[in-house]
Amino acid sequence: MPFTLSLVNFLNGCCWLAYALIKFDLYVTIPNGLGAFFGLMQLILYGCYYKRTPKEEKSVELPTSNPAGAGNVSVTVDR
């Protein structure tokens, strides 16, 4: 799951929760309070497991203009 999606989910829940608390609307407070809570849980889980996920190296073969097919260049991209 992308980090930005989890972050925006949490911020959206917090914004709507703040609005609901200002207006004292229980029907908006409960679902958005839960949404903010679960968004926070996603961010905590993301922080716990981010370093534990192994990253795979990507190897890309770039063709050259040599018609014989010799001389391909190998490029490794690290993230």
Automatic annotation (TrEMBL):
It is found in: Cell membrane. This is Protein RUPTURED POLLEN GRAIN 1. InterPro entries: SWEET, SWEET_rpt. It holds the Pfam family MtN3_slv. GO terms for cellular component: plasma membrane. GO terms for molecular function: sugar transmembrane transporter activity. Residues 60-79 are annotated as: Disordered. It is a multi-pass membrane protein. Signal peptide: none annotated. Forms homooligomers and/or heterooligomers.
